[in-house]
């Protein structure tokens, strides 16, 4: 009996070792954001200030240049996250696009046509005609609801209405998990950071209102807020109004985690100006997405997509993102912003 008991103990011991050694397998999807740097078609829209982006305009924006830029951007999009997920982004928020047609042209390129992307877009009242939008893989994401939320701003000096980009909210199912995506392009720093700060703080307040409405329905809602915020992770709009946290530990429900805070502290950036890097392009996730339990999709890690070909190699902008326009000249580049991304993972069963 004593020998039999020892044998059973040994069997249990070795079984526990084998179980510990067995690696868990996960499904993974990339969620990304990319400012496409003024992706305009070549046609004049009389309702917006797009005259420069026409063949006879200041930028001499021709079909050949437009097609080249589309292919460039499509290549970038097709490669974001591939080294980890073996696939292009499941969901991609974009900014600085003129209309839905440019996204239809983008997703029809040789790089993206096989990916079967859907498009969610609303025309916003921005005077230049630029909008935000969402691309999603139809095979893995099923939209449920989408809505555009108007940012109402007035000039502090003249009290005249300022027309800017709407904020886009898309709710849908990622492999069965309900995810809410909020896509932003907050007002720029034109006129100076301090003078324009109130605009971005108003934008942050609108974003918080939208997310609070989701939390009111479900405090454990899985929300991803993304965009070109024209503010750093340390600015009041993000640090105070959104109250985004730098650490995943001890987060409370209905709070946001911002992985870009630590990246910014290390001097990393998604765009450069005046020999200074800024991390204006950000992704933040709600507390439910940072739980260490992977029976459903949870946040894994985030990053900045900046392969060598996206970096300018010479001249005034050496080391900066390889932009597509400089000094009113088409440079054959990509964008003046790097894309940012995060991974969501779920344990395979």
How would you sum up this structure, described in words?
The chain has 349 residues and is α+β, with helices and mostly antiparallel strands. The chain has a single domain, classed as 4-Layer Sandwich (Deoxyribonuclease I, Chain A). It has helices at 2-21, 63-79, 82-85, 100-107, 193-217, 236-241, 260-265; strands at residues 26-39, 91-97, 117-121, 131-137, 141-149, 153-154, 161-162, 167-174, 177-185, 223-228, 256-257, 271-273, 276-278, 281-286, 298-304, 325-326, 329-330, 340-347. It has a 6-stranded mixed sheet. A 6-stranded mixed sheet has the order 5-8-9-10-14-11, with helices on one face. Strand 12 (271-273) and strand 13 (276-278) form a beta hairpin. Helix 2 (63-79) crosses helix 4 (100-107). It is globular, with a radius of gyration of 22 Å. The two termini are 39 Å apart. The model is unreliable at 8-14 and 17-21 (pLDDT under 50).
Widest sheet, order of strands: 3-4-2-1-18-15
Q: What's the architecture, going by CATH?
A: 4-Layer Sandwich
Q: In DSSP terms, counting alpha (H) and pi (I) runs of 4 or more, how many helices?
A: 7
Structural class: alpha+beta
Task: Considering the chains and any ligands shown, give keywords for the structure.
alpha+beta; Deoxyribonuclease I, Chain A; six-stranded mixed beta sheet; 7 helices
Compose a concise summary of this entry:
The chain is 25% helix and 29% strand. The protein has 349 residues and is an alpha+beta fold.
